[in-house]
Write a structure and sequence with these properties.
InterPro entries: FtsK/SpoIIIE/SftA (IPR050206), FtsK_dom (IPR002543), P-loop_NTPase (IPR027417). The chain is about 40% helix and about 25% strand. The strands form 3 sheets. It has a 10-stranded mixed sheet. Strands 3, 4, 5, 6 and 7 form a 5-stranded antiparallel sheet that branches. Strands 1-2 form a two-stranded antiparallel sheet. The N and C termini lie far apart (about 110 Å). It has 14 helices and 17 strands. The protein folds into 3 domains: about 40 residues, no CATH class; about 60 residues, Threonyl-tRNA Synthetase, Chain A, domain 2; about 270 residues, P-loop containing nucleotide triphosphate hydrolases (Rossmann fold), CATH 3.40.50. It is elongated. The chain is an alpha/beta fold and about 450 residues long. The longest helix is centred in the N-terminal third of the chain and has 27 residues. The structure holds adenosine-5'-diphosphate (ADP) and magnesium ion.
């Protein structure tokens, strides 16, 4: 039928097309996805939706009038045998399964967005519960539910974990007290803005990526007009490399108490300044009076609360009270906290739960037990807890990030080594405010007290 030359030619064309496709996918995966992968996926997804929705129990049973064709045997006049078969139309009530209606699917860099109209009686949570099933059915890495308008949900699917490789990010945007330590799962930069969320809790097991995140933050803050203060009771091993950019670093318990006393005293002075000028926070003070913002980093908070003997009990109590005061007053008066730890639970001592409730920004890396994830993320969306428990050990630095508004993201810090952060600290050592200039000690009468 075909001669040999035509066959060889056809084979050569096929090989060239496949090789070209593979090369395209390899060297420009994004355009390949948009032009080839996504359209194919979209057609398949619409074609299989009824079946997938039914398997995920997202369909509703409905009774509908339907015209059906029935085969009716026609009996001969004299015999009992059917002599012919005729088809008759019948109007019948039949039960059908109605899948929620799909909207227009749209591609994104890492997957797709699909709006869906809810069936009567459905809520977005019905979709959240089966998100993992949907992800498997669609061969996606993950499916997340975005609650959009009443009666509608938007599902966001990601093809593969976008956090396996994190592209380099510029750690310091132009805004004061804002850093970009990594990327979010949706491909956007992960932004930490201390002005909106002043205090942060970074939780995670050892080797989960806490120190790397801290490095990224120190690298981001180092070039800014911000004072850094450190508390590191693990002998200073974590924070000493950055000491040139720190106004103070406490590595013993008594030094911690002194430093915290200094910070609380400075807070009192800032409070008095604000009262004198009739303003609510330091940002509204006249520029020449506006104090430098302070970011205090506590590495391994459990060490601060550990009581070895009776003598330490009083120091621990003082520490706890001072930290709580800083957390309560810091937002208005420009002192921000980052507290790192494997877990920060009430078992550490009284005052810890109150402190935790003031740390409104939460970052939960891989943790050892589900309770720690729940403790860190609080009463968030159960899907956030599930995502925290599912962080694999092979991707240190991946974390669930929760802001104070209840939204959450999967994110990963950019790999920032101690050497990177140390280099940034050295390069910006001229910005370090000496401790003696940073805090004002001694009593300060508040305006009301003077009047009294
Ligand atoms: N964001 C990241 N990307 C890639 N590797 C990371 C990341 N974060 C941490 N790691 C790796 O994991 C190791 C342990 O991280 P580290 O920050 O020291 O954990 P922790 O302080 O929680 O014990 C690091 O040495 C680094 O190799
Ligand atoms: Mg560490």
């Amino acid at each position: 039928m075909f001669d040999k030359a035509t066959l060889i030619e056809a084979l050569a064309v096929l090989v060239a097309v496949v090789a070209g496709g593979l090369a395209w996918r390899r060297f420009h995966p994004l355009s390949f996805w948009l032009c080839v992968g996504f359209p194919a996926r979209a057609v398949w997804l619409y074609a299989t939706w009824q079946h997938v929705a039914s398997a995920c129990k997202l369909t509703h049973k409905r009774r509908r009038w339907r015209v059906t064709l029935d085969s009716v045997p026609v009996l001969g006049a004299a015999s009992r045998e059917a002599t012919a078969i005729v088809e008759r139309r019948h109007l019948r009530r039949v039960e059908i399964e109605k899948a929620p209606r799909l909207g227009l699917i749209r591609p994104s860099q890492h997957g797709w967005r699909l709006p869906i109209r809810l069936n009567d009686g459905q809520i977005p949570d019905d979709f959240a519960k089966v998100a993992e099933r949907l992800a498997h059915a669609w061969r996606a890495h993950a499916v997340r539910v975005l609650d959009s308008k009443p009666g509608k949900v938007v599902l966001i699917a990601t093809r593969k974990d976008p956090l396996v490789t994190v592209p380099p990010v510029d750690p310091t945007p132009d805004d004061l007290l804002t850093v970009r330590p990594g990327v979010l799962e949706n491909g956007r930069p992960w932004v930490i803005d201390f002005k909106t969320v002043p205090h942060w809790l970074f939780a995670g097991a050892t080797q989960s990526g806490k120190s790397t995140l801290l490095n990224a933050i120190i690298r981001g803050l180092a070039p800014q007009p911000v004072a850094l203060v450190g508390f590191d009771l693990k002998g200073g091993v974590e924070l000493t490399p950055y000491v040139v950019r720190m106004s103070a670093l406490a590595t013993t318990r008594s030094a911690c108490v002194r430093l915290l006393d200094g910070l609380v005293s400075e807070l009192t002075h800032r409070m008095a300044d604000c009262r004198e000028h009739g303003v609510r926070n330091v940002w509204r003070l006249p520029e020449e009076l506006r104090p430098i913002p302070i970011v205090a980093v506590v590495d391994e908070v459990a060490e601060l609360f550990l009581i070895a003997d009776k003598a330490e009990k009083e120091e621990v109590a003082k520490t706890s009270v001072a930290l709580l005061r800083i957390a309560q007053l810091g937002r208005a008066f420009g002192v921000y906290l980052i507290v790192c730890g494997q877990r920060i639970g009430s078992d550490l001592g009284p005052g810890v739960t109150a402190l935790r409730s003031q740390l409104s920004g939460r970052v939960c890396h891989r943790v050892n037990d589900p309770e720690t994830a729940a403790m860190t993320l609080g009463d968030m969306d159960p899907a956030a807890l599930e995502a925290a428990r599912a962080i694999p050990a092979e991707t240190p630095g991946v974390a669930i990030v929760a802001g104070s508004d209840g939204s959450w993201h999967r994110a990963r810090s950019a790999l920032t080594t101690e050497a990177d952060a140390e280099a940034a600290a050295r390069a910006n050592r001229h910005l370090t405010t000496p401790w003696a200039h940073l805090v004002r000690t001694g009593p300060r009468a508040l305006p009301d007290d003077q009047a009294a």
